Amino acid sequence: MVANRATGFYVPFSLAVAFLMLGIGPTARGEMTVEKLTGTAITGVGPYYQDVADAIRQFGAKNYAAALEHLEAAKKSTPRLAPPEIMMASLHMDAEQPGQAIAFLERAILRAPQDPEAFLILAERAFAEGRYSEAELMYQRAVKNVESYTDNPRRKQDLQVRGLSGASSVDEARANAKDAKPKLESLIKLDPRNALAHERLGRVLFALGDQKAAYAAFQSAAEMDKKLPPAELSMAYLFTDRPSVEKWLNFAINKGRQDVRTQLGAANYMLKHNQLDTAKVHAEEAVKLDPDGFDSNATAGLVARAMADYPKAQAYLEKAHLLSPTHTGVINNLALVLVEMPNEGRERALEFAELGARQSGNARDAMSTLGWIYYRSNRRREAERAYSAAMTMPDGSTSKTMSSEMAYYLAHLAKEQGNIPEAVQMLKDALNTELPFAYRKPAEEFLEQLSKLDKSQPAPKGEKTPDAKPSAKAGAAK
Fold first, then answer.
1. Any idea of the CA torsion for 121, 169, 10, 408, to the nearest 10 degrees?
2. Max Cα distance, the chain (Å)
């Protein structure tokens, strides 16, 4: 069946539909530097600098013992640095070696039990993996240690910010707005220009029923960070009833017609609710306001694709691709547009589909797109292999959930294999969503066509099936 994906509004809504339809492209891991490893503990170049640089170099050569020696020398010359075991743990984390990292964190706790950072890192890892009870306990210990920490005021403030931010995140994940509120307020006192903290406080205040204070918090966040949505949009998408959402959305549009974030928010909302003509108006206005913006071009491309305006979709998505060449969602949608362009041929579509699969690590959406392009290119065996890979979970099991687009693709394959009832059910599942679905109209037409061929479906009321016998009442009428 098609997954029923509820949409939350914990990200700027101008990107919400993009996350749903485009996916999130992979991000490159930056090279470890002295500044990244030492963080805010110390700034400038001092006696520690060369030792830390040498430690990074030795770690890269897998000379871990030598790396630790250099970090210990750095700590000895500059006591304000974090414990060497903490820095070694950071190096192992950066190298995606969590086992070794945790071992060094345990060593740090034994050697410097009053230092907060080991507990913070363990809490952050537990939270990222959904182990909220463990994260809560670790954050409590870290915050307690931070209170008595005096070695480095700059580092102390950084650890306080991390501790309060993380502890409040646990509360938010548990929908515990009451406990999250004082933590976020303390976080803002420590870091008044933290726009995300203001935005998070707005969501918490809204959950507590204080809409006026929530709106004020969202206003502060939007003023501090122009990448965040306007306050009116943040308010709009926290409501669950459509009239309230549209009331705030209209307020946002009337107040910020020249604000690209507002136009993107309106375009994505209308796209989400399949109001494509209105979505097009706002998307094109966003492009006028920000002709070289990734979000504006990507959103306009999605709207154009949903409206089957493939030339426009191609133009917008190609520009978005140039602005973000590794964004697999844009690559996938561009492939799906190109396969519909008769003059482009299917070779270019296949190139993009294969590129998307490689760059995403064979993620489900990318493999689903690749399967569809193979199918449209009459490469049936390769299509079946791609679909099989898309449906296979990391543990080797098979998932029964799929996106509407994938259900639409598989319906064609099922029909070709003679399994009409399965194709009909897949199309019904694909259409059973309020989320954007670019193939909605062709899916409806395909379903109507197949329903006439599906002998497993009951005949319409009053219509005889081929083997039906006249009823007694009918015989009497004769």
1. 70
2. 109
Cα of 391 vs its chain's centroid, Å: 20
- SS3 percent helix, strand, coil of the chain, rounded to 5, is 70, 0, 30
In degrees and rounded to multiples of 5, residue 2 shows phi and psi of: -80, 135
| CA–CA gap between residue 262 and residue 12 (Å, rounded) | 11
Alpha helices by DSSP H, listed for 129-152, are 132-148
Q: Nearest 5°: phi and psi at 414?
A: -65, -40
Decide: 86 and 66 in contact? Cβ < 8 Å: no
Asked if 420 and 454 touch (Cβ cutoff 8 Å), the reply is: yes
> What's the pTM value of the predicted model, to 2 decimals?
0.72
Are 330 and 358 in contact by the 8 Å Cβ rule? The answer is no
Query: How far, rounded to the nearest angstrom, does the alpha carbon of residue 311 sit from its chain's CA centroid?
Result: 27
For residue 300, count other CB atoms closer than 10 A to its CB.
Answer: 28
Residue 158 CA to residue 2 CA, distance in Å, equals 44
Q: What is the pLDDT of residues 350-393, one digit of tens each?
A: 999 999 999 888 888 889 999 999 999 889 899 989 988 888 86
Q: What angle do CA 413, 416, 418 make, to 5 degrees?
A: 115
Both tokens assigned to 201: 């406080």
Q: Are 171 and 187 in contact (CB under 8 A)?
A: no
The position carrying tokens 């690749």 is 370
CA 257 to chain centre: 27
- Residues comprising the chain, all counted: 478
